[in-house]
Amino acid sequence: MDLNLFRVFDAIYRSGSLTRAAETLNLSQPAVSHALSRLRDGLGDPLFRREGRGMVATPRAHALAADVRQALALLDGSRQGSAPFEPARSTRRFIIGVREAIESAALPELAQRLRQQAPGVILEAVSFARETVAPALARGQLDVVIDVPLPLGSEILRTPLYDDPLCIVMRRDHPLAAAPLRRDDWLAADHVVVSGRPSGLSLEDDALRRAGLHRRIALRCQNYQTACRAVAASDLLLALPRRVASTQAELAPIVRSEPPVPLPSLRGQLYWHHAADEDAANRWLRAQVCAVMQEQQAPAD
User: Is 108 left (phi over 0), alpha (psi -120 to 50) or beta?
Assistant: First the structure.
């Protein structure tokens, strides 16, 4: 079977569209349709079914996808020999899955670093659902993902990225801002918690529960920028990662205080698919992400 047919398969699987696959491969749509027809005949499976304006993979296609992608990566690597990835000449498009809080803290520095080294590349930061991380990395819909430790399969590789201590923020003229924060005062105050989940304990509340302590949550919201604006306009207190607090302090009139009880750090990891492990461009991107996060490890005053 013509190996180029599997490049068509990979492009359709990644994009979920015959039209976008044709654009990616610089082929006509009839040529892509013809290639898909040959694949269907050769493999004895429809592989993709039309649903609305897109193409949905069959179970057989899902089973093939990771192996096809890895095989194509190995073939490309063999064809290119030892030729390195050249950032200064690249026009590669990189897609990073990242949470909003880390995006606001790290993306500006990462974008600047990439612009300096690789002005032709395109960087896209996108949101994601955690249950889609593994398939999105396998399909090439995401190049890398930055998130907290996740229970993913062995096909997803990872490396520790940051360990960010939690701190407490409040408005600048808050009654508790004039002196070191005491445990009883902190627990007696009303608090904001940031979570994308509709219920459940936050990282800090789980730690408090295990210590036999409790605080009152007066506001639950989905992102730190909203929470910091609420804090700046009230007596509410907020626990958040130090890295994020430094960024938000530039946008809202808030001050930072050390937590009066031991709180856990927010740990983050960088994820990528094993098929991309030896891809020179993906390795370069991972190195840039790690470098930016390492530079931010020193706590800001």
Answer: alpha
| pTM reported for the whole predicted model | 0.67
Dist CA 77 CA 24 (whole Å): 19
- Which residue type, as a one-letter code, is found at position 278? E
Asked whether the beta carbons of 267 and 162 are under 8 A apart, the reply is yes
95 and 19 in one domain? Answer: no
Q: Which residue has the tokens 């210590």?
A: 211
Q: At 211, list the tokens.
A: 């210590």
Q: Is 97 helix (H, G, I), strand (E, B) or coil?
A: strand
Domain harbouring 17, CATH code: 1.10.10.10
Residues 116 and 240 in one domain: no
Domain membership of residue 301 (yes or no) is no
Q: How many domains is the chain built from?
A: 3
Helix axes 4-15, 29-43, angle to 10 degrees: 110
Q: Say what the pLDDT of residue 265 is.
A: 87
Residues 141 and 280 both lie in one domain: yes
Q: Domain span at residue 256?
A: 163-266
Q: Kindly give the parts of the chain with pLDDT less than 70.
A: 1, 74, 76-83, 297-301
